[in-house]
Design goal:
Helix content is about 35%, strand content about 15%. By secondary structure, the chain is of the alpha/beta class. Strands 3-4-5-6-7-8-9-10 form an eight-stranded parallel beta sheet. The protein has a two-stranded antiparallel sheet with strand order 1-2. The protein starts with 5 loop residues before the first strand and ends in a 30-residue tail after the last helix.
Length: about 290
Amino acid sequence: MDINSVIELNNGVRMPLLGLGVFRCPMGEQTRAAVRTAIEYGYRMIDTARIYCNEKSVGRGIRDTSLPREDIFVTTKLWRTDFDNPRRGLEQSLERLGMDYVDLYLLHWPFYGYQKAYLELEKLLDEGLCRAIGVSNFTIKHLEELKKAGAKVIPQVNQTECHPQNIESELLAYCRRTGTAFEAYSPLGGEGNSLISDPRLASIADYYKVTPAQIMLRWNMQRGVIVIPKSVRADRIKQNSDLYGFELTPDDMDSIEDINANLRRAYDPDRINMRPQATFPKIIEED
């Protein structure tokens, strides 16, 4: 395993095991510079979304580098305001990104109408506007509902919150059985978390002379889980990519899984349609 390690999706597309997430990264130069820095340090995947309001900044950061477009794996996501017209949502995201296609297009949450929206994503995949499609924050129930709705394409990726306090073993096993790659957002536990100071992680980190954050990322990657840690700091971006000079033992892996508390910090996917309208992020257009 090294920084160039990839997972082959169920349609043959190769997706990096490590990427940069830009959730809550502000639009403008800060995100643009973070993307540029990540690529300089060897990252080859950037994960954004319509609701992050930084797609333009991501596209600019990628174009700042000398790498050809095909060398960077780009993910964005369809927000609920475009569930009635996924084609419009993707075409507008492509315009903001300054690209002809994205490598992965996800339904961001199982909002009402997700079954019909996913069937439209299948058409966009056939047309080459995206190289792979998938979902985010979907449970086993939601994935089964896609089958009942007549989906012909098994989601290539399911991206969900996954870290030592929320290990998602059952969902991970289901995705392995069905051929859907599993991707972890908030792999370090999310902002304001207590995982960094957990003594069990600290003990393992001390042994390998790395940080608890590196231990958490390596743990998920050894499970075959794609990780997209978020940072705008150059030192953290670099540190989050230094994951290949050590390997966790089976005992280490078990100790980390013992931290699990089924604790999600993001909204419950089964209750997302009951979330009050006023609590959703607001879309702000970038300059």
